[in-house]
Amino acid sequence: MRATFLYEAGDVRVQDAPDPVIERPTDAIVRVVRSCVCGSDLHPYHTMSAADGPVPMGHEFLGTVEDVGSEVSGFKRGDLVVAPFAFADNTCEFCREGLHTSCPQGGFFAAGVGGAQAEAVRVPQAQGTLVRLPKDVDERLLPSLLTLADVYATGHHAAHQARVEPGDSVTVIGDGAVGLLAVLSAKQLGAERIILMGRHKDRTDLGRYFGATDVVAERGEEGIARVRELTGGHGTRAVLEAVGHMPAYEMAVGAVRPGGVISRVGVPQYEDAPIGFGSLFGPNVTLTGGPAPARAYIEPLLPGVLDGTVEPGRVFDRTLPLEQTPEGYRAMDQREALKVILTP
Amino acid sequence: MRATFLYEAGDVRVQDAPDPVIERPTDAIVRVVRSCVCGSDLHPYHTMSAADGPVPMGHEFLGTVEDVGSEVSGFKRGDLVVAPFAFADNTCEFCREGLHTSCPQGGFFAAGVGGAQAEAVRVPQAQGTLVRLPKDVDERLLPSLLTLADVYATGHHAAHQARVEPGDSVTVIGDGAVGLLAVLSAKQLGAERIILMGRHKDRTDLGRYFGATDVVAERGEEGIARVRELTGGHGTRAVLEAVGHMPAYEMAVGAVRPGGVISRVGVPQYEDAPIGFGSLFGPNVTLTGGPAPARAYIEPLLPGVLDGTVEPGRVFDRTLPLEQTPEGYRAMDQREALKVILTP
Fold it and tell me: At CB < 8 Å, which residues of chain A contact B?
């Protein structure tokens, strides 16, 4: 089959690779119908050394079941399925609590498993991981369904962990796909005031469509001052941080109201950060978030996608065939495209 | 009057000072009946330079009202009162939300206000700050009532912010007064498993009396391993950190279960700390806590103290007259005393 590999920073290649096969009785093989490029794929695209490559890329996909291992039941060849970006058994104590990203049987689509920017993918723990979609689903819904694999689930996780509730005030940092879907999620949970911090007008316009009430283009101290100005001087009760770089964390600390919560879903590109008296402790600010247990959210979020209540698939603004995946990375990196969907 | 001042690290003096007077119409003057030395007083006792001194000390007291400003109503001379360690107007938006430590009119008993390790103290925002106690209260209850000013309220804040609930598993780091009262508070909120990390047997015995089910004397990696061993490998859902030094934070990160919460009430003696993928983010751990809005907790916690359901005053194991306050600091610093109560 054809599959995408990152060789080193900036070097993405689509090449021949062995067809995936059932390796364990809990595996399934899924033929990819749609996949896409993630903002988090851009982190290794910026920094990975050749010594760490090549690695298979892609962790978001819709597909049809092609084969299942002997311990996988309830799925048959041809079923349309979506998978969360982290596989999990869906039966352990963590999965039962909705924290599938901490499943001891779980893991990520990466080296040793395979990537989803490919014609087919091996899915470990398929019974617990895959979610079947309706057979006759309208093809126009595929982009929105694909967002359940990661970006919509991750945006929802940000708002969910921040316990956004009706009437709430929320700042969303980042106008990438996750930030915009954090706006959508905050709106769904009833937030009244949603301030979107982002500098790309086409993206922040989509953010307004999803429910942002204000847009702040300034960054750093100016951005913090603007959020405080909009909120009577104190900031918003919740800040959803969908970037992962230190300046975004610093803006979150500046924009959160005393007693409020910073919910991070952008993968942190730092380990140490300020959390002492002058940042989080003094004003009793809570810090939460992490990788989204997307599997826990797919079923609750699915009905709104299927009936058209929400259209998270609007974050896709470019469609490319799998062979042009490297162009997808380039376009997203250059901010020419918000999010690129890939077809076989 | 006589009052306590810290001149520099290790140098505490009781000396003559001007009697406090009403400076603003919102002030009251309270004659101190009981005060005490706090674990947090030991931080400047260890590190303060002579250039920053002398500073008035003490922020926990019970007393009788001696005088009130023209804008203070509802209190009369002779009323027995307790005050939270942070004064506040109790009417602003933050106070109404129960976050009195963020009151714009609020502040701490410190330079410019006066300290409570003294014969009398000026209380700013007295109307909002003071809570009247029953006139005929049994003198044996005074130590427990005094803990409402800080250590019991702070232990309660740790458990409250961690949202401890019936059946919960909790680790408490630190066997000082706050740690022990965090144990008591976790027990009150229904925690089933309470692991107390501490090395002083007389203190951990009191912790067992307050509700600890297990005691871990080991520290660092060994302490973490022991907590994990006691909890099926994963740690406890909540960790209440009542120390404030970096090793205690590191133990908290090691002892918390994925998806769990670290609630800090020990004043952090650091600003930067690990919060990235390898510490908080990857396992979706929440970090919360801060200075306790004691004012919000005094009224709800008062009935249990008055009827003897709880005896938080057991943390006091030495009584000294005000003149011997320096000996109180020395004894607490040397771990000879857990917490020293001062009489006029």
Answer: 94, 97, 99, 101-102, 161, 258-259, 264, 267-268, 270-291, 293
